Amino acid sequence: MKRTEAREEAFKLLYSIQLMEETNLEEQIDLFIQENNIDDNDAINYIKDIIIGVNQNNEKIEKDISENIKAEWDINRISKIDLTLLKLGIYEILYSKLPYKVVINEVVEIAKKYGDDNSKSFVNGVLASIIKKNNLDK
Fold first, then answer.
1. Residues 14-37 pLDDT 10s
2. Are the beta carbons of 126 and 86 closer than 8 angstroms?
3. CA of residue 88 relative to chain centroid, distance
4. What is this structure's pTM?
5. What is the distance between the alpha carbons of residues 66 and 74, in angstroms, rounded to a whole number?
């Protein structure tokens, strides 16, 4: 499984977990992997890293999102799909240290597929703001 495909699968699982109020994370990950017949160890490790990493850093990630959206906006106004995409992108850029250009490109592609008409530009804009704020564009 290619990283692009694994990223999309991680998004789907992260999104479903975001919708649940309480969940056993490990159980949800294992169930998702089993139900989707994911047998590539690299993909499984990648998906687990994303889900566990976002969960462990959720408070900091949400703070980053809140600080990089328009002042009149509240994080609770962001669609669950866009919020999930932002969490995925921020985690990969700031915590996994993956190349931000690749992450933004692929997250925007997922936004085009699953989000609404404004998702791609919204997600791109917030992630670009985070890149600038953290001086990663140099």
1. 999 988 866 789 999 999 999 999
2. yes
3. 1
4. 0.94
5. 7
